[in-house]
Specification:
This protein has 18 helices and no strands. With 332 residues, it is mainly α.
Length: 332
């Protein structure tokens, strides 16, 4: 018998006696990239560490989805749904700051102030630099007969967000509960001026003044528009301007501003309509003519543009005067 034949018989015998007792080779092991071209791995075949990692990742993804749902519910003022979704997020990931913050705020709205305190304190433990847990905690303190503890908490919130209207409003409520009406009015007015309708309502309830609502909110939105103008965020300005027009429909300044914004966006028909509306409301407001002139200039109508710039300059608007000089080629 040849040596090759002997070797083959030996290999066959080895396979016959030992392969039935060997660990079977599986293609769907954790080494999917080597053994399984489809990459399919069953959960049971993972190691303990791999299983734990997979569970953590799944829980983290699901927790994030529930946090977003709680955030959406806050936006809708749906406090029951906020509590439900935030609770699910916390059950999956107890370290979710936003979930505690949202649930604390919702608990306050549902009158569950002691639960709100617990969540607010947990949120502050996780992220002490956020203003809203201080506000929720202060609100809960006020409603559980401890208003004197609220001002310090609310001033902490204002350190992180100096114009927070909710902090102003609850400072007003705290001082009202402490029988300090002058300070209560002061902070309600600040809340109203910062754009919070509840602050306006509270101020009106204490003073009987109603004109503050419109004036303060217009001032607030106008300040934001000025900032957005420098950033050239035209769509944001249009949205804010529409809000001002809704509460103050005879505001000629905002129509003139809209005219300029629409001109920047190349929406010339809308620009001319808004400039004309501003002129109708106040024929002596020079910026309206300047912005209409700018619209004409961008439309390729230099004669009409120059005429409006001249009217604007005659009415004392510096932009109109500079544009006249520019078109005439004079140094500005």
């Amino acid at each position: 018998m040849s040596p090759i034949r002997v070797a083959l018989i030996f290999i066959i015998l080895i396979g016959t006696f030992f392969l039935p007792h060997a660990i079977p080779i599986q293609c769907n092991t954790a080494w999917a990239d080597r053994a399984n071209p489809n990459g399919i791995v069953s959960f049971d075949q993972l190691t303990l560490e791999e299983k734990q990692t997979k569970v953590r990742r799944t829980a983290d993804t699901q927790a994030g989805q529930w946090v977003q749902k709680s955030q959406d519910a806050v936006t809708r003022n749906d406090w029951i749904e906020t509590i439900r979704t935030a609770s699910l997020a916390i059950s999956l990931d107890p370290g979710r700051f936003v979930a505690y913050q949202n649930r604390a705020w919702a608990y306050c709205h549902k009158g569950l102030f002691y639960k709100a305190m617990e969540d607010a304190k947990t949120a502050l433990f996780i992220r002490p630099e956020s203003p809203f847990p201080y506000i929720s905690l202060a609100w809960a303190q006020i409603e559980t007969q401890n208003p004197t503890a609220a001002p310090k908490l609310l001033h902490n919130a204002l350190e992180f967000d100096p114009e927070n209207p909710f902090a102003f409003n609850y400072l007003g409520l705290a001082y009202q509960k402490m029988n300090t009406p002058a300070k209560a009015r002061e902070y309600y007015e600040k809340a109203c001026q910062a754009g919070l309708q509840t602050g306006c309502d509270n101020y009106r309830q204490m003073t009987g003044v109603t004109s503050l609502d419109i004036r303060s909110r217009v001032i607030h939105f106008t300040r934001i528009i000025e900032k957005k103008f420098g950033e050239q965020k035209w769509d944001d300005i249009i949205a804010l301007a529409d809000e001002i027009i809704r509460i103050d429909p005879k505001n000629h300044t905002i129509y003139a501003t809209l005219g300029g914004v629409y001109a920047y966006k190349g929406m010339y028909d809308q620009a001319l309509i808004n400039c004309q509306k501003a002129i109708e409301l106040n024929p002596d407001f020079g910026l309206s003519y300047n912005n209409r002139g700018y619209t004409y200039e961008r439309m390729g109508k230099p004669a009409e543009a120059k005429l409006d710039y001249e009217i604007s300059c005659n009415l004392g608007d510096p932009y109109g005067c500079r544009n006249v000089q520019r078109l005439e080629g004079s140094p500005q």
